[in-house]
Sequence to fold (85 residues):
Amino acid sequence: MTSFASKVRSIFRVSALAAVCAVAVPSGFAVCLQTGPTTTYQFVGQCTDCSGTGVGLLTVRNYTLGNALEYCNFVSFSYTSNLTA
Fold:
C-alpha cells in the first residue's frame, strides 16, 4: 500500500470516528452561550428552618419567563436566611 493511500484511509477513519462521536453526544452537553441578557428572580418565603423569611436568588441567561428552564440558561442560585439551630 502506498503512503498516500495509507494517509487517506487514516483520514477517513478519523473522520468517521468524529462523526460517530458528534452524533453520540447527548444534547445536554451542548456548548452554552456565555453572552446574552441575564435576569435575576427573587423568591421569598416563610422559613421552616429559620425565623422570619428565606430568600432565594436565581440568575438565568437567555431565558424567557414561561419557557422550560434549560441547563444552558442557569447562571447561579443563592439562598440566605438567619438559620437557627
Observations:
- Helices lie at 3-24.
- Residues 4-26 have pLDDT under 50 and may be disordered.
- Strands lie at 38-46, 53-61, 74-80.
